[in-house]
UniProtKB/TrEMBL annotation:
InterPro entries: Kinase-like_dom_sf, Prot_kinase_dom, Protein_kinase_ATP_BS. The keyword Metal-binding does not apply. The keyword Nucleotide-binding applies. ATP binds at residue 53. Keywords: ATP-binding, Kinase, Nucleotide-binding, Serine/threonine-protein kinase, Transferase. GO terms for molecular function: ATP binding; MAP kinase kinase kinase activity. This is Protein kinase domain-containing protein. Pfam families: Pkinase. GO terms for biological process: immune response; JNK cascade. Residues 26-93 form the Protein kinase domain. PROSITE patterns: PROTEIN_KINASE_ATP (PS00107), PROTEIN_KINASE_DOM (PS50011). The lineage of its organism: Eukaryota, Fungi, Fungi incertae sedis, Mucoromycota, Glomeromycotina. It comes from the Eukaryota.
Amino acid sequence: MNLNEDWYQTAIEKYKINTIIYNELSERQTRIGRGGFGIIFKTKYKSEIIAIKEIPISAEDDEPSIKKFIKELKIHSRVKHERIITFHGISRS
């Protein structure tokens, strides 16, 4: 399997990560920050204000980096705590 191309399906199928249809996110997105892994935007999803992180993943990314990213998705999708931002899922544009 070429993980660079199939990371999205791997995350969904192997780790049961929830998916969000990109078109269901509001078109109006406000940039609110930038981190080591990407750009953070504020938008609306199902009448709720949420933050989304845009992370560029390309064919040039090495397999260990993509595996680390998928592992973080898995962890964030399972953490439930009042002081941690709720993880809703992943999407692709």
